[in-house]
Design a protein that fits this description.
Elements (H helix, E strand, L loop, with lengths): L4 E8 L13 E7 L6 E3 L3 E2 L13 E6 L13 E7 L9 E9 L14 E3 L9 E5 L4 E6 H4 L9 E7 L8 E6 L3 E2 L2 E2 L5 H4 L4 E7 L9 E9 L2 E4 L2 E3 L9 E3 L4 E6 L6 H4 L3 E10 L8 E10 L1
Antiparallel strand pairs: 1-5, 1-7, 2-3, 2-4, 2-6, 8-22, 9-12, 10-11, 11-22, 12-21, 13-14, 15-20, 15-22, 16-17, 16-19, 16-21, 17-18
Length: about 300
């Protein structure tokens, strides 16, 4: 089963999560072979309640590429599961899983059945309106999957290669943003999420092997709307500025999603002017480098 992708849709009541700003409650998929010591898990998905609530009160997908971890025996997987960690003492509530799917390596990563309103898939060979918004010198390049040599995330032939260079202004951060979506040859921004019935944005992210050597990697979506900036873990003027990152793992796809919950979003969601993602290399190094692939960004 090496390279097979397991996806589960998950719903967690906010009562089972610690406050979002403590970054303690989390969720992972896992597969196991024989003894409990022979197992691997997906990247940690933060689960938080209260201000900046993350991954509670709504369905979201969790993904694991089997064989991507050192503790796996892909030829002898006899258990799969979902693990919710660090539930507050005495907490009660509901935790649901549904539609667990295992796909061969040649198939696109499964996504929830919700039909996206808009998608950025880079199939026309362009950057789909994305540009580097932070860390001068970094580059983005539409690139074919055949040259990348990685599992396809969208069913198409191309993705967007984000190259972080050593010595840029941001050091260990790279931020790209799109303020353009091609709708019959015209710009679709501003996007009215209210009219569309849309609730958020999601994107697939892959950490390439040349980014190895860090203590970890994180990604955060953000939405610019009506002069405010919403990101994983909060709302404010920074992008994403100290808000929580979702961990992304080396050598596998991770879906990073954002569904703003701040009270101001009810008004701002009718005037979305930009969508973006920031990659953060953990460990404090200011000389980070490497390639990060994104694909299939969706407003849904």
């Amino acid at each position: 089963m090496t390279g097979y992708t397991m996806v589960a849709n998950v719903y967690i009541d906010s009562t089972l999560a610690a406050p979002a700003d403590t970054y303690t409650t989390g969720l992972q998929l896992f597969d196991q072979s024989g003894p409990s010591t022979v197992w691997e898990s997906s990247a940690w998905d933060n689960v938080g309640s209260g201000t900046g609530a993350t991954n509670v009160g709504a369905w979201f997908p969790v993904t694991l590429v089997i064989g991507s971890g050192s503790g796996s025996t892909p030829s002898a997987v006899d258990q799969i599961g979902v693990q919710l960690t660090n539930i507050p003492a005495g907490a009660t509530g509901n935790f649901y899983i549904d539609d667990i799917t295992i796909l061969p390596s040649s198939a696109p990563t499964a996504t929830p059945t919700t039909v996206p309103n808009y998608s950025w898939t880079f199939e026309d060979g362009s950057s789909d309106g994305f540009y580097v918004d932070y860390n001068s010198g970094d580059t983005i390049t539409p690139t074919s999957y055949s040259s990348l040599g990685i599992t396809n995330a969208s069913g198409g032939v191309s993705a967007l290669d984000m190259t972080m260079i050593t010595g840029g202004t941001g050091g260990n951060d790279m931020q790209i943003e799109s303020t353009y979506v091609n709708i019959s040859g015209s710009n679709g921004f501003p996007i009215n999420f209210t009219t569309l019935g849309a609730t958020g944005v999601r994107i697939q992210v892959y950490v390439m092997p040349d980014a190895a050597g860090s203590s970890g990697y994180g990604a955060a979506n953000y939405i610019k709307a009506n002069g405010d900036v919403y990101s994983t873990g909060g709302v404010g003027g920074a992008i994403p500025g100290g808000y929580s990152y979702e961990s992304i793992a080396l050598g596998q796809w991770t879906e990073v999603s954002l569904q703003p919950s701040a009270s101001s979003w009810t008004t701002d969601m009718s005037d979305v002017t930009g969508l973006g993602i920031e990659i953060n290399v953990y460990g404090g190094t200011q000389s980070a480098s490497g390639d990060y692939i994104i694909d299939n960004m969706q407003v849904y």
